[in-house]
Amino acid sequence: MLIDGDPLSLKLLQRNISVVIPAQNPGVVPAAVNGAPVLAALPLRRRTSGWKLAEEGACREDLTRLCPKHSWNNNLAVLECLQDRKEETEIAADCNHLLWNYKLNLTTDPKFESVAVEVCKTTITDIKECAAEERGKGYLVSCLVDHRGNITEYQCNQYIVKMTSIVFSDYRLICGFMDKCREDINTLHCGSISTGEKDVHSQGEVIACLEKGLVREAEEQPGAHAIGANCKKAIMRVAELSSDDFHLDRYLYFSCREDRERFCENTPAGEGRVYKCLFNHKFEEAMSEKCRDALTTRQKLIAQDYKVSYSLAKACKTDLRKYRCSADTNMPRAREARLSYLLLCLESAVHRGRTVSGECQGEMLDYRRMLMEDFSLSPEIVLHCRGEIEAHCSGLHRKGRTLHCLMRVGRGDLGAIDNLCQKALQTLIQEADPGADYRIDRALNEACESVIQTACKHIRNGDPMILSCLMEHLYTDKMVEDCEHRLLELQYFIARDWKLDPILYKKCQGDASRLCHTHGWNETSEMMPPGAIFSCLYRHAYRTEEQGRRLSRDCKVEVQRILHQRALDVKLDPELQRRCMTDLGKWCSEKAESGQELDCLQDHLEDLVSECKDVVGNLTELESEDIQIETLLMRACEPVIQSYCHEVADNQIDTGDLMECLVQNKHQKEMNDKCAVGVTHFQLVQIKDFRFSYKFKMACKEDVLKLCPNIKKKVDVVLCLSTTVRNDTLQDMKEQRVSVKCRKQLRVEELEMSEDIRLEPELYDSCKQDIGRLCQNVAFGNAQVIECLKENKKQLTQRCHHKVFKLQEVEMMDSELDYQLMRVCKPMIRRFCTEADAKNMLQCLKQNKNSELMDPKCKQMITKRQITQNTDYRLNPVLRKSCKADIPKFCQSILNKATGDSELEGQVVSCLKLKYADQRLSPDCEDQIRVILQESALDYRLDPQLQLHCTDEVSRPPGRREVRLQPECKKRLQDRIDMWSYAAKVAPAEGFSDLAMQVMTSPSKNYILAMIGLGVCVLFLFGLLCGRITKRVMQEQKNR
């Protein structure tokens, strides 16, 4: 408000300008001045230089009521007071017309222009555009208003500021605006040109109407009118010139006057401060819809031209010039001016480590947050996502909720999304760059505030690591559901452009340029799109030195961090989701738990389409090298890792050691169900391809290519290699064909496979029906199902029986592969068999079976294995080797009758026992049969034939005195007695008393005693003879 003591320029203006109000007959429209008609409200009078608005009767009443008395002598002060009244009823119509004529004549009067020339002499000379303007048409003052930001003269500046408030009070006073926009105003029906048809104070709505038409055209709304290029420039210029003081945007000023008092009462006008304050409160409940609408329109204009924001243009002016953000001559000027282009250009500088002023970064942060809060500020989203918004996201426009809803649609959670809409969302995320500061995303910030305060309080507010911290706590107790949804919606888009993770970009931009041939931060390449860069980085992350160039250490750490995050949700891996969309729907649509989709795809690996199978295979291969990528599994297994595997877990480079450690400790008390299931799942996946076992692959790669080409499944590779090792051993080859390092790892794989029947697919498939019938309540793991099948061997189907027999044959040849035996007898092995070969562990345990120190459970397990061995000579490697000549010689008829798949039920062993009684076996074979007889004497179950034929007799209840034996059972018992008798005869005496007892009880006692007596007599006679000869020799020597 002007008061006495105005600057010199304004006093000069008051003193020298005479305002002419032309005389007209009532109701006659005067000639247009500068394209605008002038209405006469008063009779003809010549106004002297001392004329005052306050003295006019048309405005006297309003002036007395609304304006302070000390301002009455100052026409400009009166004008300012009266023109800022909002309600039409506040000021009389005649007064409005008087004010209009005064302002119009003021801006076009040559004397007014002469004041400008006098006050702004130096400025006009400096501003060439204004010096060249034609005088006498009001263009000079308009030019000075346009360039008011460059005016340094104090008096000139004060003069132009005051004239600006007059000029912007009505669009018709803006020089040239009417000429450029007359046709568009009429086409869009934005209002009347004469004041008689529309109130003067609503003339700001005409510009607002044009601005909305400009926005509709940018959004390509149906029926949008194409505004002329000159008018478009004029509209944007008006918006730009009114950017520092919200009073100059008349429509917004009147729409938001009450809201300004409510929210921004203490915010001083100027430099766009009021605009920013109102923008910050745009979505408050108390904000009026009319003001919110006006603010949105202005924000949309800012999105089209950043200079419409005074504070942003001022703060970033130097940085824009410094980083050549307006230097691309090939780019249309309209695109250069767009807010998105400015943000991308300056964000690129920040990401490259260049210095951008703090003031500019602060402004960028505000406008990035603004873009994330209101989707309607992005014309591409309004245009391309209209269908998705109407179908899924209507009514959610406040605080970024619509944008997150669209992100959710983009993830595929709510249905399909148009490609153009998806692209528009991706572009907006890059422009807003919320990965650099989570606070930009208001919806995420509000949803995750409690999680950040508890789980991430150690991280500085606004730090990019906040998002990583939130991802680390995904699916944990600290995470809340709303935060989980908002986080995954945002991460879905960040994951599709590696540059949107600022930490990854900072650490890896050098590697990406060196290895992946990337361009600048905001540049793209069809040959290497953003999504492909990360794939390139992680391929190099796990290369060995021999394989070529590798990532730097810092970059590899960040790549591993991203891989850990992606493992939490299959949709965070763009390549996996793109290639496996069909398979995910087909096989994994019923997956209830989040983060389990990859496990599901791995379970159905053989059923996947080829391109999905490839990407799942690559990820699985990567996991085998670094299982810590499996974040959920690592969380579940933390107790076991801390107790048994912390040393390998702490290694920067995991080469499969951690998973091997978890497998070895799978049955420790610290192992919980989730961890056990996860470890078993990975074991089951590994058997599908030997590449999925990193240590096995690295140790045996050359051996597989040489000895087992074209074999892919791990179980088949293990079988191929182990068969080769076994054959080489049996043939006593000087040099094993399988390398030492491969044999060592092969042993690890064989031991792991023996723990769970599911790790041997051929056996599992053959016995699946039997497992369901006989072992349905037996848990997998610890070889319990295999043991159950062994115990029910007689009830198995033929196919399963054959596979179990083959398994037992392998286990008997190599006791270390007998998981149950090694587990149950582990303490006894440490006690009795520390020096024994692991492959011969059963033999050692059998020798110590009857020791008083033997554990009962282990003793029972040894007995089971002895019973198994006696059922078929092929299950007793020692007997088989010792009797390899005797079996074909004496038991060929049994072998001829048996088929290759059938079990001999102890017939060969019984055959050998009979030949033992006949004393026809070779010494080695006889020794083994004697051991078997001695063992079976203590436990009838060790004689399979006896158990088979005497089952009924043995199973009869006790108490019956007389048991009638069946002929076959009786025969078997008699054979057993005969063999014991013979064994007793040939058994060596353990002492003199044992020897005397055997002689006295022998049927050949007399013969033995006679022979002993004869021997004694012979010795006596021999001694007597030798004594006499010795005596004679000694006598002869003495006589000499």
TrEMBL record:
GO molecular function, one term: fibroblast growth factor binding
Location in the cell: Golgi outpost; Membrane
Gene Ontology terms: cellular component: Golgi membrane
Membrane-topology descriptor: Single-pass type I membrane protein
Source superkingdom: Eukaryota
The Cys-rich GLG repeat ranges on this chain: 226-286, 355-414, 478-545, 550-609, 670-729, 737-797, 853-920
Keywords, sorted A to Z: Glycoprotein, Membrane, Repeat, Sialic acid, Signal, Transmembrane, Transmembrane helix
Keyword flag Nucleotidyltransferase: no
Keyword Membrane: yes
Transmembrane intervals: 1007-1030
Protein name (Swiss-Prot/TrEMBL): Golgi apparatus protein 1
